[in-house]
Amino acid sequence: PSVPKRLSPPKPQASARVEKAKILEGYKIKDASAHNWQDESSRKAEERLKEKGIQLPWHYNDTFGEDFKVLALRAGGLGAVFFVKSTRFGERIYAAKTLQRFLQKDYLEMPTYQQKKIADDFLEEALPWLEMGQHPNIVPVHLLENIVHPTTKRNVPFVFSEFMEGGDLRNLLVEKGRLNLEEALSVALQICEALIHTYKHGLSAHKDLKPDNIMVYRDGVYKVTDFSTGVFGTPGYMAPEQVASYFGLKENINIDHRADQFATGIILLELILGEHPFPWIRAVYSKEEAEKFVREELKIPDNLPGSLRAVIERCLLPEPDNRFPDISALKEALLDVYRTESGREHRFPEVEIDDSPEWWYNRGKAFSRLGRSIDAEIPYKEALRRFEAMPGTKLDQAGCLMNLGVVYWSKGNLLEAENYLRKAIRMFKEKSGTEIKQARCLVNLGNVYMGTGKLNDAEASHKEALRMYEAIPGTELDQAVCLTNLGIIYSNTEMLSEAEDNYTEALRIFKAMLGTELDQARCLINLGNVYDSTGKFNDAVANYREALRLSEAIPGTEIEQATCLMNLGTVYGRMGKFNDAEANYKEALRMYKAIEGTDIEQAKCLTGLGILYGIIQEYSKARSVLKEAIEICERYPQCTEEIKNTCLKVLGQIP
Questions:
Q1: Are 519 and 480 in contact (CB under 8 A)?
Q2: I need a labelling partner for 292 at 20 to 30 A (CA). Which of 152, 273, 439, 557 fits?
Q3: Which of 289, 308, 342 is the last residue of a domain?
Q4: Which 8-state DSSP code applies to residue 343?
Q5: How far apart are CA 277 and CA 281, in angstroms?
């Protein structure tokens, strides 16, 4: 294809932004009863998903989580993107992206412990993108959220990013045909700016640069999107080393900024030519094709300006070491080309930074979702400060206070947590329709009271939360959590009959819900402890054995399994079944020793074995395990005094 030199691009073809305009019309839901897609692209996206066996749980105008309404849908090869409107923060629009696998039956029917790990891993992959914050040439992440599937009640993880009204660079190319030289260079320079910022936040490479992942913010401003540590790339834009790694042609290949240089060179050529410069490399789907691509040098069109040709040739060299030393060097080379071809300096367009309370609040929620309380504290405080200066934002202020309470609770600052949560409850009570938020506050406040030993206050908070949840349909899991917490409180205050009742009711609820095997196992362990304390040893054994059976089917539950075994050892010892007791203690100890950070549990297990050996008069074994337990206790004097005293007492009784 011929290469335009600072010429106006061809006359635009039929606009690819017509669909975008239709989405914009859908920003204001005019007919509250309408649930049919308002644009053709959404209808086609749903058809593509149906062909893969996906039945969409959300359509136009449907409620999406607690704070959003659905506007439109897009679907690619692996992902699905819902354009959603906030019902909480001034009707903002977000692009909520997930993987199609999270909408498929095999994921939605997984046990919750498996589903939770997969969903958490997906959201964790977005952490570097979240940490990038705002940059003029990066689409920012606003929120990481699990949205409850309305049918299966399972969590579907979503990454919420800023919605780009201009669509992507692919659509712009369809609309314009191609870009003139200055426009194309400006796009490439802004990609470089984005990558420089990216590498400062822990990512070695984007790995999937392509026109589809370059968004048009407004005329002349472009933003890179879709950062993910789990992405491997797209044929046609993958560097030779990416292809070699994917097809196993070489081992221990380092994929870094040089792969992004290759993709940037391809994109720049595509923008200038109006089509992919090397169509054949978009079909590299076999090992044979990969071997050809890796060893073949790409031929650049002859009629490129000389200065630009040299830069692109270097970007596309097959050997990564022969490309630019870093992305800053590529940027400087492109600036020189721009200066040579245009006769003036390139000016990067200015882009406003979002300093709204919504930005800060969502950022706090995103960090909280990943369990990063320290990182969440400042955003929540910034959001609260801004909301406090705005009339009519009491509910938003209460939300910030509640979340700050949870942050301080997770950090162990219980006094601050209590203050924030009590303030939040007072503010929520001033507004009707906030019962579920009040209940959440009460549960968190109850947990704080449990941590500070205020068990009467903890009981009152959890009972009030339970009462509120029981009046709200669909909160069965929350009710079970309240009942479990009440069971723990009653166990700690020797109100064992009440503890048994609450654990039993919690277990009944868990058993009625799919995928709650781990919750059931933990509830059974707690019930077993109550039965052990009340002398119902056969019931205790039955509960521990059932908990062990459930746990053994769940990967990553070695601690729960070891706890069941240790507790079985204790109960069998009380029942006089000493061989069974010894076998269970030994197996529990073996498992604990394989788990880092379980020293205190090991000391408890060794103490139980020591007591057992003392009873059956195997005094040498008793001395050995008790001394080992004491050695552990001496490493943790503040939390093992009772264990150590028990060991010393038993040692003193051994002849």
A1: yes
A2: 273
A3: 342
A4: S
A5: 9
Say which residue the tokens 């100890």 belong to.
589
For Cα atoms 481, 483, 485, give the angle at the middle one, nearest 5 degrees.
Answer: 70
Tokens at 334, concatenated: 């492109």
Task: Report angle CA 233, 236, 237 to the nearest 5 degrees.
Answer: 50
124 and 178 fall within a common domain: no
Q: Which residue has the tokens 């030519």?
A: 273
From CA 62, how far away is CA 70, in angstroms rounded?
5
CB neighbours of residue 514 within 10 Å: 14
Locate tokens 């609820």: which residue? 509
Picking from 208, 176, 179, 174, the residue whose alpha carbon sits closest to that of residue 191 is: 208
The set of residues, in sequence order, having a beta carbon less than 8 Å from that of 512 and lying 6+ positions away, is 476
- Closest residue by Cα to residue 46 from 27, 35, 33, 59: 59
What is the tally of helices (H) and strands (E) in the chain?
Answer: 27, 8
d(CA 318, CA 155): 43
Short-list 216, 213, 208, 257, CA closest to 236: 208
327-342 vs 306-315: helix axis angle to the nearest 10?
Answer: 160
Q: How many domains does the chain have?
A: 2
Query: What is the phi/psi pair of residue 156, to 5°?
Result: -115, 120
Asked whether residue 144 is domain-assigned, the answer is yes
Q: Which amino acid is at 297?
A: E
- Tell me the two tokens of residue 647: 């060991």
- 54 touches 104 (CB < 8 A): yes
Domain housing 93: 18-162
The encoded tokens of residue 485 equal 């917490």
Is 231 buried (19+), middle (13-18) or exposed (0-12) by CB count in 10 A? middle
535-555: pLDDT as tens digits: 999 999 999 999 999 999 988
Which spans in 103-239 are helix H?
105-108, 112-125, 127-131, 169-176, 181-199
Q: Enter the tokens of residue 614.
A: 């003392």
133 and 183, same structural domain? no
The residue among 162, 190, 217 that closes a domain is 162
pLDDT (tens digit per residue) in 401-416: 999 999 999 999 999 9
Residue 333 lies in a domain: yes
Q: 553: Cβ–Cβ under 8 A, 6 or more apart, which residues?
A: 517
pLDDT one-digit tens code per residue, 51-68: 999 999 999 999 999 899
| Assigned token pair, 298 | 């790409």
Which structure tokens are listed for 69? 């309404």
Q: Would residue 301 count as lying in a domain?
A: yes
pTM reported for the whole predicted model = 0.85
At residue 138, φ and ψ (nearest 5 deg) are -130, 130
